[in-house]
Prior knowledge:
6 helices; LexA family transcriptional regulator; Umud Fragment, subunit A; LexA-like; two-stranded antiparallel ribbon; 24% helix; 2 domains; LexA/Signal_pep-like_sf
Amino acid sequence: MRNSQxxxxxxxxxxxxxxxxxxxxxxxxxLGMRRLEEFxxxxxxxxxxxxxxxxxxxxxxxxxxxxxxxxxxxxxxxNIPVEDLIAKLYEDEVPTLGQREEVHVPVVGYVGGGPSxxxxxxxxxxxxRVKGDARHLAAFKVRGNSMCAGKRPIxxxxxxxVNTEDKGHPGAIVVAxxxxxxYVVKLLKNGALYxxxxxxxxxxxxxxxQVAEIVGRVVEVRSRL
Length: 225
């Protein structure tokens, strides 16, 4: 497309069915960018990925959602917290409720396990019974056994439910995104993140200056056993 791409996309706004079309176009305007390729290249995003985020992509009748890695990169590009992007991505699947009912909370990625956490996850949602607004909840699938000890063991294969509005407190178990982009689940205490099973893989202590953000507090553990 030529330099008139941004203006053309705005005129065709009704056809823009991607999950983050409005946010990306606003960022492009703010940065003086006219083409989606410029935005993609500037922030290390695939060009096809950005087109899908703006125009939308379906397989059959199902909308295709971006990976957690893409959401993290987009968060940095748009200066919007990851949890806010996730909430919007799944807003039609996690409704606001007036009474305790079962809703399907999105499984947004792996926590722990390094690069393997970016693999596709078969279970896209997990059922959770809640009362009130459930949009702040997200789920992660656990890789590794660095937290498989103590009073609340979290083991390989478990699914954890996270409250993204609660950033935790000393003694809480939290999910955090590290500066290198990896997601971990750890015990928050003494100004650092700790493993409860330090003999397993991964660093036993992670200083908070290596943490990009606390995603939220773990409020439920679904054991694989």
